[in-house]
Amino acid sequence: MKKALTKICMVLLASTVLITNVWTTSAYAKNKDEETTSITVSNDEVAKIAQEAYIYGVALVEMERSKNQMTHPQYDGDTEWATLGEFYHVRNFADPSTTRLRAPNIDVLYSGAWVNLKDQPVVVYVPDMGDRYYSIQVNDMYSNISGYIGTRATGNKEGVYAIVGPEWDGEVLDNVDGVIRVNTNYTWLFPRTFAKDTEDLAVVYELQDKYRIAPLDKYENKGMKAFKKTYPQKDKGMQLEEDPYGKIEYFEVLNDILKDIGMPDSESALMTRFDSIGVGPNSEFNVGTLSPELKTIFTNVAVQTEQLITYVLNGPRETVDGWGGSKDVGLFGDNYFLRTLCARGGIGGNTAEEAYYPTSYFDSNNERYYGSNDYTLTFPAGSIPPVNAFWSLTIYDSETQCLVENPINKYAIRDVDNDLKYNEDGSLTLYIQSEAPEGLEGNWLPSPKDKDFHIIFRAYMPGQEWFTGEYSLPGVQKVK
User: Fold this and answer.
1) Res 334: pLDDT
2) Which residues contact residue 386 at a Cβ distance below 8 angstroms, ignoring those fewer than 6 apart?
3) Which of 55, 162, 302, 449 has the smallest set of CB atoms within 10 Å of its CB?
4) What is the chain's mean pLDDT, rounded?
């Protein structure tokens, strides 16, 4: 198999959700006139620790920014965002006009809820899903995935699950079907519900509307009866108008988040290190009280670290037959740089065992995809992608990361499509081109004319063959 170099962001953007709207709340600023940053190390050490803190904090800042926006609906009737403690629901398949999300898929409809766990746990109700795939990803504020509710993790039966934060030391009721513990005081619940086509949407809406959240002290018994009311939480969150990246104010934002978020005991030594430069959870970082020399150090670190992140995101990465994919998304451990890259690519990526997303910017000859060329992707007989749910192939404009406009409004090919045609020998050929292949329209993924594009393969509940090396995607061939 040929190996090539391509962009690292292909691994990241494929698996994630990125908020692209502008934050419209007031600029982040605090009255710190009388507060002084305490720094106990040399200037050289300040620069070193500041870069560590910057990289450590990007995912936290991105999650906080997203929480702030998603819990403030932008207009009356905005069902895609909801108040803290309530579910919001996306009601339509993504199309080229979808700009709130980067690299959206059309396999599932998204829902979501941001929840405060400081005071007490919450319980989440899910209906009986029949044989429909669904998952509810439970994220902490570091963008790590704490656990799943759903087809793979818990099955499709009706159930109630408790989500517990780090400060809760009370008991969780016995009459729940499972408990997921989160390391932080807030969590993002991120459901995905499979939708086959537009005729299926009404059924999906009904299921989405049955997802429920309630505080533990409002939960009395299992079943839908305990969740007839909604319980919105009041929390203004951090008021962020501007992108803080690459600016000295980034460290003020990070400092406030670290004081509020809650964290694993295993990172106490690291927090002490951050405290030594005034950024940690037991400190108060105040740009206004820094000496000119320290202001220069922190400013330079912010600018240079941001340049490093941008360089790596857009730099080369090794791929196999034009495909690249990360198997570590959502389970970052202490790999803070990978966590940063994934957060900047977009929050919300599944773990590989839930859904694996190989992505390709280059064909099997290491040439960039371009709309004036025709391409084929053939799965040999006996080598159809192994999945326990379903798979899809989606095409994106490489410049905008959005879906590609085409005359038949088709943005993906899925193994659940009724019009897929297999070859006589059992193999399957997909056609990626601007014009339809005669008689094989079901196998056609329309590409844009005169534009670069890239493709993302999504394997939901992938078979173990993906991870043992027994299976990999074949390269995409340019038709001569």
Assistant:
1) 85
2) 459, 462, 463, 465, 466, 471
3) 449
4) 86
What's the pLDDT at 225?
Answer: 64
pLDDT for residue 195: 96
Per the CB < 8 A criterion, the answer to whether 376 and 413 are in contact is no
Is the same domain home to 338 and 202?
no
CA distance 354 to 150: 10
| 272 phi, psi to nearest 5 deg | -60, -40
**DSSP secondary structure code for residue 370 in this structure:** B
* Both structure tokens of 410: 């088709």
Closest to 60 measured CA to CA, from 142, 165, 182: 142
Say how far apart CA 458 and CA 394 lie, in whole Å.
8
Q: Which of 143, 17, 175 has its CA nearest to residue 90?
A: 17
Return the closest-CA partner of residue 402 out of 104, 110, 15: 104
Sheet holding 477-478, edge to edge: 444-446, 428-433, 375-379, 477-478
- Look at residue 217 in the predicted model and tell me its pLDDT: 85
Which DSSP category does 257 fall into?
Answer: H
Per-residue pLDDT, averaged over 331-351, amounts to 85
Question: What residue numbers bound the domain in which 91 lies?
Answer: 72-227
Q: pLDDT class for 76, splitting at 50, 70, 90?
A: confident
Which amino acid is residue 462, in one-letter code?
A: P
Name 220's Cβ contacts closer than 8 Å, sequence gap at least 6.
226
> Tens of pLDDT along 43-67?
899 999 999 999 999 999 999 988 9
Q: Which of 346, 347, 459 is nearest to 394 (CA)?
A: 459
Strand, helix or coil at 432?
strand
- Domains held by the chain: number: 2
Alpha-carbon distances of 365 from 1, 314, 362, 387, 397, rounded to whole Å? 11, 20, 7, 27, 20
Instruction: Indicate the helix (H) or strand (E) that contains 442.
Output: none
Separation CA 446–CA 107 (nearest Å): 17
Q: Is the same domain home to 211 and 320?
A: no
> DSSP per residue over 112-145, as a string?
EEEEE-SSS-EEEEE---TT--EEEEEE-TTS-E
Same-domain pairing of 110 and 219? yes
Task: Answer with the residue of higher pLDDT: 259 or 400.
Answer: 259
**What local confidence, expressed as pLDDT, does residue 238 receive?**
64
CATH of residue 433's domain is: 2.60.120.600
Tokens for 150?
């759903």
Residues 288-338 have pLDDT tens digits of: 999 999 999 999 999 999 999 988 877 666 778 888 877 777 778 888 998
